[in-house]
Design goal:
The complex is a heterotrimer of chains A (435), B (235) and C (283). Chain A is mostly helical. Chain A contains 17 helices and three strands. Helices cover 65% and strands 5% of the residues of chain A. In chain A, helix 14 runs antiparallel to helix 17 and helix 16 runs antiparallel to helix 17. The radius of gyration of chain A is 32 Å and the shape is elongated. Chain A starts with 10 loop residues before the first helix and ends with a helix. Chain B has 235 residues and is an all-alpha fold. Chain B has one domain: Up-down Bundle (Methane Monooxygenase Hydroxylase, Chain G, domain 1). Helix content of chain B is 82%, strand content 0%. Chain B is elongated and about 70 Å long. Chain C has 283 residues and is α/β, with parallel strands linked by helices. Chain C has a domain of 196 residues: Rossmann fold. Chain C starts with a helix and ends in a 5-residue tail after the last helix. The relative contact order of chain C is 0.18. Classes of the chains: A mainly alpha (435), B mainly alpha (235), C alpha/beta (283). At the A-C interface, helix 13 and helix 14 of A face helix 3, strand 7, helix 4 and helix 7 of C.
């Protein structure tokens, strides 16, 4: 026993030293804990600020002011031939009918100046709205119906209280005359504040009150579908090949390094590449969801491949051994055992990649999705735009109502993103299996 | 006691159970052979019927073969099963019992040879004593085997009683045979044979007592040999 | 008797002095009616020579155990028998391993078919994360062994019965295989291996992750299975090898030192290295 080299302290001395060091350690740990908590608090604080700002600006943007008018649906003026088709109403004087209804409510003002002021109260798209109504409800022709029309964006801003009455008239966008008309309408109870149907069902427009995200939303969905359709199968297949079947040599190492690097490439570079290859060389049209989808797919591919590889790697080799031991071929092992077990991770990675792609603006700008598209795209080869680009464009416009609508659109985009991430978490929880 | 017996056959491995069963059976069979040997030897001593000699010869060979077979079984069990606790005591006890049985066989073979030589002389001297010893010893042998079969502690302890009796009879036989030899020195040769026969039989009794001690060890795990040596003397 | 004993002792002492790895394996490499034969098998992991020129017969209807210290190559050699070493990139195998006189490393051999004839049970129980029924049915399904649902049910029931698990799980076949205890999981893996009707079952330390009672049950199972299957078991417990096997092969640093009847190897091994290992004299 005594020929072992003896080192160190007796147990009592060691216990003493440990006791001394405990208070120092505790202080260090408490400091660290405090710093951590502080960091979390700061982060949460910024998050709260962000949301507060967006919500406070955006929620009003979800609403609009409407004026209710009694409109005389005079067939002779609206649809002379009485056929009720798009061509036959093309000559109808819808604007006139609407204007007349407005004059009536305001007590038939006289004078060209007054009438011009009146016309500025209401949205320029009101005639269109009446036309659509007439086409959809042919049985109402000839009667008088109460319809809601959006007020002009300046009037809307005024009604929200963002244009003060105290500013001199020359500096105001709403003249005193208009103000009096507005007050009159309000007294008559004709002004209502409701959820904006324009926002969700209208398309891009220079008129703020008519501007909506429908086109952009559809464009986003189409683009995302193209993106998933290309990126997911390609990404999963690539990951399976690289993990399971490729020989481990220099070549595959280089591929792996390149994929990892691609994940860090700025997204605008993909846009430039898309522009150069798909639009210039292949001659595909600009601004279509197909090209946008392909570009986004290439952008998210590295993310999907990396997360899919990680999921595949996480499947324990004992499962593979068990399958091979029973006589399964390599493909059977992969499809029957590895993929089902790796799928939750792959799906989670894909959804997160998609959420990222949803919010991308720069690459889509490069391929021309900044064009002003009014029509809602009906297919992947119709010109369209996406929600982030729409927001970007609106942010440029001067009208104040655009600010509100921009924030509202941001809320919609965020809601979309949050629900996609929530879906990823739910999916992961549901499919998580223990082996 | 019955519980311990049944316990031997409750291993998860059925092969192990069978092996222990075979071990006990073989031991009892060997014991049976030895009992047969004792009966034959005594009959020969009494009747001098030379046909019994070949019986004694063949049983002796069977006893030796049984010893080798049982030692092989013991070795197998230790190597393959690594027995512990009651299983270990069983295997160790059997290993010792087998040796004592084989020694009994050897002693009885001696009795047979000696009986052959002391045919004529002696005139029935010491026959009674021999027979009294033989009777006790046969009972001891039978009881020791039964005690092993039934793991019967009480029976085992009875054997110690008998041993004391046998001792007394043996001592008195020796005294009377000694007197006989002193009286007529011409008888010494033949009487000596009787003495050796008596001694062999007494040895058989000793071996039977050993078997009883092993049974106690097997059941209680207590080593009751050499009571003058107790555990304290080693510390 | 005395003379024979002393001559045996003389032989043992002279072998004991030679603690050198022999060029040739001692004991009985060959067996009558071998199910599988290995001849001059070498295995390399990159530069490491893991198995050095091993030849051995695996006899039908018997249990042979591979014992030896860590890293001696017993698991590697076992995995050669069903070509599981193919899954390791850096592994190269040379020599012949034959089943029915056909070299399993021949390019014309379908590895999938080989693994259906030579099944494997692993060290850590690894049931599929599927139901108990699906675990056992997977092999028959992919090999097309059952032509109807009824046949499949029969195969599953028979396999579970042979593995001694049927009574415990017959009422919960649709529950997850991973919900069973360790010992039950391993018996499930045995049932899964049996379900494809293999001829040989390879077991790589099947009890090392189990408690003593589960171990005893599996050992009992192995002695029951011996009648129908040829079993090769790698074990680091010599006591287990002594209990369970008919023949024992001792591996040391990639070489096969000695192979023979289990009782003989454990009572009177032919080589000093074998004796050192089994008596615990290794450093």
């Amino acid at each position: 026993m005594s020929d072992r080299i003896s080192f160190g302290l007796s147990p009592e001395r060691a216990a003493e030293r440990v006791a001394e060091s405990i208070s120092v350690r505790k202080r260090k740990e408490n400091r660290f804990l405090f710093v951590g908590k502080f960091a979390v608090a700061v982060a949460l604080g910024f998050l709260v600020l962000l949301f507060a700002g967006i919500l406070s600006k955006g929620i009003p943007g979800l609403f609009q002011h409407y004026v209710t008018l009694d409109v005389q649906l005079d067939a002779s003026r609206l649809d002379p031939s009485g056929q009720g088709t798009l061509e036959s109403v093309a000559d109808g004087d819808f604007d006139g009918v609407v204007r007349d209804a407005l004059y009536e409510v305001l007590g038939d003002p006289t004078g060209r100046k007054a009438k011009r002021q009146v016309r500025k109260l209401i949205s320029s798209g009101s005639g269109q709205r009446l036309m659509h109504y007439v086409l959809d409800n042919p049985d109402q022709m000839g009667s008088t119906v109460a319809l809601q029309f959006a007020v002009d964006d300046d009037v809307d801003i005024f009604l929200r209280g963002l244009i003060s009455r105290d500013i001199p008239e020359a500096d105001r966008r709403v003249s005193d005359q208009m103000v009096s008309y507005i007050d009159l309408l309000e007294d008559k109870g004709r002004i209502s504040y409701e959820i904006s149907d324009y926002l969700f069902f209208g398309s891009a427009s220079r008129d703020a009150e008519m501007a909506g995200i429908r086109g952009a939303l559809v464009g986003s969905i189409l683009t995302l579908l193209v993106c998933i359709g290309i990126a997911f199968p390609l990404g999963v297949a690539t990951a399976v090949y690289l993990e399971e079947m490729a020989p481990k040599n220099r070549f595959t190492e280089i591929i792996e390094i390149n994929i990892n690097n691609l994940a860090a490439v700025p997204s605008v570079v993909f846009g430039i590449m898309g522009l150069a290859i798909f639009i210039v060389i292949f001659g595909m049209p600009r601004s279509i969801p197909l090209v946008g989808g392909i570009v986004l797919a290439l952008m998210t591919l590295p993310t999907i491949i990396i997360s899919s590889r990680a999921s595949i790697r996480a499947v324990p080799p004992s499962i593979r051994d068990a399958a091979l031991g029973v006589g399964a071929s390599k493909m059977q092992t992969i499809t029957h055992h590895v993929l089902p077990l790796a799928m939750p991770g792959m799906l989670t990675g894909t959804i997160i990649g998609m959420a990222q792609a949803l919010g991308e603006t720069a690459p889509l700008l490069m391929i021309g999705m900044v064009a002003f598209i009014v029509d809602v795209p009906s297919g992947v080869t119709d010109p369209g735009t996406v929600l982030p680009v729409q927001i970007f464009m609106w942010a440029d416009f001067a009208e104040r109502m655009f600010i509100q609508k921009t924030s509202a659109a941001i809320i919609v985009l965020l809601a979309f993103l949050i629900s996609m991430n929530a879906a990823a978490i739910l999916l992961r929880k549901k499919l998580e299996r223990r082996w | 006691m019955k519980d311990l017996n049944e316990d031997f056959y409750r291993h998860i491995s059925s092969e192990f159970n069978e092996e222990l069963e075979a071990l006990r059976r073989s031991t009892l069979e060997m014991g049976g052979l030895v009992e047969e040997q004792l009966a034959s030897a005594l009959k020969f001593f009494a009747s001098q019927d030379s046909s019994l000699l070949s019986d004694i010869e063949s049983i002796e060979q069977q006893i030796n073969a049984a010893e080798i077979d049982l030692d092989d079984q013991v070795e197998s069990l230790i190597v393959r099963r690594q027995p512990i606790a009651s299983d270990l005591r069983l295997v160790l006890a059997v290993s010792k019992i087998v040796r004592d049985l084989e020694r009994i066989g050897d002693e009885l073979e001696k009795v047979g040879r000696l009986s052959l030589e002391s045919l004529d002389s002696a005139d029935g001297v010491g026959i009674t004593e021999i027979q009294r010893i033989a009777e006790q010893v046969a009972k001891m042998l039978s009881e020791s085997l039964t005690a092993f079969a039934r793991l019967d502690l009480d029976l085992a302890r009875d054997i110690f009683e008998r041993e004391r009796k046998v001792d007394k009879v043996y001592q008195s036989a020796l005294r009377s045979l000694a007197t006989f030899m002193i009286e007529d020195p011409r008888n010494i040769g033949s009487v000596l044979n009787i003495v050796w026969i008596a001694r062999s039989l007494e040895r058989v009794g000793d071996h039977a007592t050993n078997i009883a001690e092993y049974v106690i060890y097997l059941v209680q795990g207590v080593d009751v040999r050499h009571p003058s040596v107790n555990e304290n003397s080693f510390k | 008797m005395q003379l024979a004993e002393s001559s045996r002792m003389v032989q043992t002492i002279s072998t004991l002095e030679a603690r050198v790895i022999p060029d040739n394996t001692l004991g009985q490499i060959h067996a009558d009616n071998p199910r599988m034969k290995a001849r001059n098998v070498d295995v390399f992991y990159a530069d490491k020579h893991a198995i050095d020129n091993i030849s051995l017969d695996i006899a039908s209807g018997q249990v042979i155990s591979f014992i030896g210290p860590s890293g001696c190559g017993k698991s590697t050699f076992l995995r050669c028998l069903n070509r599981m070493n193919d899954t390791i990139d850096s592994c190269r195998v040379s020599g012949e391993i034959m089943i029915d006189d056909q070299n399993i490393y021949d390019s014309s051999i379908d590895v999938v078919l080989l693994r259906a004839r030579v099944g494997m049970v692993f060290q850590k129980p690894n049931p599929f994360p599927k139901s108990i029924f699906d675990n056992v049915a997977y092999g028959p399904r992919i090999h097309g062994l059952a032509t109807s649902k009824v046949e499949l049910d029969q195969i599953v029931e028979t396999s579970l019965q042979r593995a001694g698990l049927w009574e415990e799980v017959k009422d919960r076949l649709d529950q997850a295989g991973t919900g069973l205890s360790g010992g039950q999981q391993q018996r499930l893996c045995i049932a899964r291996a049996i379900a494809v009707s293999p001829e040989v079952i390879l077991m790589d330390e099947p009890c090392s992750a189990l408690d003593p009672i589960a171990t005893a049950k599996i050992e009992e199972l192995i002695s029951e299975l011996r009648e129908q299957y040829t079993i090769v078991i790698v074990t680091h417990s010599m006591q287990q090898a002594a209990r369970v096997s008919d023949r024992t092969a001792y591996f040391h640093l990639g070489k096969l030192i000695e192979v023979g009847d289990t009782k003989q190897v454990f009572t009177n091994p032919l080589h000093a290295l074998t004796q050192d290992y089994i008596t615990g004299r290794f450093g």
